[in-house]
Amino acid sequence: MKPLFHSLSHTLAFVIVALALTTLNVAAAANLTSTVNRNQVSTNETLTLTVSIDQQVDSSELDLSSLQENFEILAATPQTRSSFNMINGQSQQAASTTWTITLVAKNEGILTIPAFSLKSATSKPIPIRVSNSAGAGKNSALPLDVRVSSDAIEVYPNQQFIVTVELSSSRNVRDLSGPQLVIAGADVEAFDQQNFQRVDNGIARQIVILKYAAFAKQAGQLTVPIMTYTGLQNGRRSVFGNSGTQVIARSKSIDIEVKETPETSNRQWLPAQDVSIASKWSGDASGLSVGEPITRTITITAKGQIASAIPPLEPRAIDAELKSYKDQPQLETNKSNQGFVATRIESEAIVANKAGEFVLPALSIDWWNTKAKQWQTSTLEPETLIVTGEALPSINLVEPIETTSPPTNATIINNTDSTRLWQLISAFLALIIAIQFYFLIKRAKPKLVPNTDQYQNASEKSAWSSLKGALKAGNSRAIRNNLLLWGRQALGSQAPISLDALAQSGRELGVADGLADKFNGLDAYLYQGGDKPKLAEMDLLLTDLRAALLKSAVNAKKTKVTLEPLYPT
Length: 569
Hints:
This protein has 569 residues and is an alpha+beta fold.
């Protein structure tokens, strides 16, 4: 029994140590973060600080005393969350604890929200710029006030500019209402809303800030219109309706000058705050095997722009021993606190036919820097594929297999003469089978080509329907995008095509004369602020082109060589 006792003691000690190490690892893995809703405030505005840890802890464990040096804590609300998830048949628990803290700065200047420490995790400090509140409340006597501002008064076509609407109301004003911002000659979309409290001369006021991203359509003059908002002062809601005195606030209009597009030198017009281009491989590009596919994903990111404005990458010639199969591009437009962030994702599968080192050429995109007011080029440097191995071998004749005669009731004669005879017979039969197999594969090979006519027709009809809808709606951007999609289906191309290639197909068929001029006019309208294209004329030319392409496809199908039957009678 004594050895058994020692064994159990050692095992128990090992378990205790393992649990202790696990606890330490969990504590070390804790993640503590601090975020604020704004990093620029005045001394009479509230600030919301959010501290979060990805564990369930006691709310009293977070020490906030270091905040009191520069900030007054108005409120602190803790919240704990936990959930269970099933992953691959195993249950996992996720928990977090969050503190939402309302602060007011005690002094002006650049103040710092300190780093917090909890469960061996430490957050990062956050600098806050605090301005003097003097003059901020000159209209604090008004029950409702509105101010509209723009971050730029001179822009270019299709350049983002931010319009900010600030509503200020006393605490006894409710049921605020007003219009969405609409600017004639520009596309406008809201992307951010902030709500907080401001104190003016001891009087608390509710602040609502609305932010809009606007894009001018063409050169000229834009006007941010007068915005009118209403509310009810005093009174209260009841089953008989709302009571109270209606109050009104009106903003001032703002003039925006839209300048002519700078010289493009045949470059596509892409104004943005910043543009980057990056690539990602689905596998190891330096350890590829012959015949093994690998996917390259190229992502173009443009700050201060929408995804449809990012032009496709110019095609680049690659080595003849590389086969490339491109996928449809993915367009995404996301919102940030600075407006829109657009991405265009282009993917292609690459297959190497032989071993070697292949260099994919550099890719670049030109764009107009709206901050520096000059052209810039973002470049993806050349990338190298290293392929090893050999191509798959062709079909070889089957080596003769040494066999023996099947057993019978008679005694098996195992002598040298009979063995050689059976070897010769087996080799001869194997050679005949291999020759027949070779000719069968050679004659049946055309059968392996799939018939995709029906699929392409369905895709072409769908793409044509989308193009007709865009033409009817008069949406120039949608027309251009759908033109490229329809052209790819109509021409049976596996890779994206250009508008020039689509117009060239019409010239080769002797129809749709002048379609290239219509396409150039469309691009000039979208990217250079030109005159609006005549869509009705373009619609007629495209209809003629489609009819000619369909007729050409039918004739080509009729002239296909008919294969002889595999087993002639």
